[in-house]
Amino acid sequence: MERSNFIWKWIFLFLMHFTQSYAEKPSVTEMYSRREELNLLKSVLKRFSALEELEKENINKMESIERKLNIISEKISDCVGGISVHPSIPTSQTTRKSPNTTVKIKSAHTTRTQSATTETTSTKPTSSITQLPRSIGSRGREFLILFMKNHPAAKGSPTIYITTGGNASVNISTSNDLNASTKLATDIILNVSYYSNITLPYDLSCDYLSIESKAVLLQTSELSTVSIFDSFHKSSNDGTLIISTNRLSTRYLVSSTNPYKKSEGYYSQFAVAALYKDTNVNITFKMKTSTSISLLGGTYEDQDVLTTTLNKYETLQIMHTSDLTGTFIESTKRIAVFSGNRCQQMKVLACSHMVSQLPPTTELDNRYIIPAFYGNLGTLIQVISESQNSIKISEGRNSSTLHMNEKEFMNIEVTSGETTTVESDNPVLVTGFAMGSSNKDPYMTVIPGVNQYVDYYNVVVPDGYAKNYICVIIQQKYTDDLKINDTSTDHYKSVQQSSAAFETTYSIRIFEVDSGPIVISTTNNSTFGLIVYGHRMDDGYAFTGNYVLS
Question: 124 and 63, same structural domain?
Fold first, then answer.
């Protein structure tokens, strides 16, 4: 115990010295040196964490240190990122092996299979990227992930996609209370060269109405973008961007749709994951007044409040045969929240899984541009307000202003193919649902607000889909500054173009792209919105490039 107290004293002294010296505006050389000091301190903390498992009374101290380190790390990232250039996409690759899984390693012309856990790909760039991004957005070094239940027939593996700025060390870890065989097949430390696809066990999918230890923590040594897809099925799948843990918070609004059928395959659902121990969670349900939910020893109706406590990496997934949209979740510590439908049917004869991680209410915007989803028979737009609000909705030349009450939501169905704008007095959550077509099933994503646009995105377009698209929303005067993989957009097929306006006119362009990593940026740091989506027979997916305030 004396040794433990000595180490804690040393850590706090280091933090005091580091914070004071950071405030003195160090030189570039000093900043790089201090980044190495921070990495050394993180290494010490990682080794010291093993001791903490035996010293439960120090857990609160450890969490306090972790939060301070994350804040300092983000500050250093901003400073160092402002004096360096984007690395070129490397041509080499490294993968650390671990048991019980397989990996495909691809190059431009060959494919081979090895015994390992990840699919890692390196691509030679057409040219180096020299424009410096101003915004980090949803990128980060730590991500809290959970996997929701897909259609009952979906028994395939869930997948994590990660892109980095170059070579990075990635650590995936789970709770010590997780099933031993699942933990063995999940936990891994590996080196990633630019991007990687990581396949995880199906057993990580959350069950309903019970508290489980199924959250996954992903940590990287470099700023990264992470997206996931729930358990695979060829005709029922969807994906979502993952928000870094430093942008998580304690207040969330659930977005879903009314199940097409009152059966287990179509549930409206949401799930919560805790980042810290002793996280108290209050869930205020919103559902039809004639229905109820029974879980954790109680029965809950509309406006009833469920109070429970989640420990580190614990999850709780809740479902119902009526729409849970507008359910309000509040916690005492940061949590991650996901929602959607287990499977949903709209304008087609079959259903497909829908999922998105939700931004906390502190990250919501009050201006949104919502393009129609290309190749679909309609787009359902959902607006949810945390407080009383006045909402102006414009579709083409038509507009109307509506009043919304606290925790109220409205659904707007757009079949004209027109772009819709939403402007509100107070921040709102806006979600878009592609309603499908004769051979495409529904999917969903959170829509980015104008103040959530950033100037740089580095994402993976998943493989396995017949057509993939990126939808870019950018001020019209900056369209010539837009680059895809550091080349002109003229090199990419544009399948649809439209416009929308607030004080300035925005151009909305949809490009067809190939699967794999893709960097979209501007040469003058002008910001823009990004939605990635794609189709295959009886299935589709979508996710947004960023949906936290920039």
Answer: no
In a domain, 203, yes or no: yes
Burial of 258 (0-12, 13-18, 19+ CB in 10 A): middle
Give the CATH number of the domain where residue 225 resides: 2.60.290
Q: How many domains does the chain have?
A: 2
Do strands 159-174 and 111-114 pair parallel, antiparallel, or not at all (unpaired)? unpaired
| Cα(260)–Cα(441) distance, integer angstroms | 13
Q: Within this chain, do residues 124 and 166 fall inside the same structural domain, yes or no? A: yes
- Alpha-carbon span 86 to 41, nearest angstrom: 26
DSSP assignment of 324-370:
-TT-EEEEEEEEEEEEEEEEE-SSSSS-EEEEEE---GGG-EEEEEE
Q: Which domain holds residue 148?
A: 103-229
pLDDT at 348: 75
Note the pLDDT tens digit of each residue in 93-104. 333 333 333 333
Residues 170 and 208 placed together within one structural domain of the fold: yes
Residue with tokens 């983000």: 74
Residue 517 CB contacts under 8 Å (≥ 6 apart), including other chains: 89, 121, 123, 163, 194, 195, 458, 459, 460, 461
Q: Do 72 and 123 belong together in one domain?
A: no
For residues 134 and 224, state if they share a domain. yes
- Closest to 255 (Cα-Cα) out of 429, 137, 136, 402: 429
pLDDT (tens digit, 9 = 90+) per residue, 214-239?
Answer: 999 999 999 999 999 877 777 778 89
What is the rounded CA–CA span in Å between residue 93 and residue 109?
A: 15
Is residue 365 a part of any domain in this protein?
Answer: no
Cβ atoms 163, 460 nearer than 8 A: yes
CA distance 457 to 129: 12
C-beta separation of 306 from 283 below 8 A: yes
Amino acid, single-letter form, for residue 21? S
Do 153 and 117 lie in one domain? The reply is yes
pTM above 0.70, yes or no: yes
Q: What angle do CA 205, 208, 246 make, to 5 degrees?
A: 60
| Domain shared by 140 and 179, yes or no | yes
Does residue 317 lie in a domain region? no
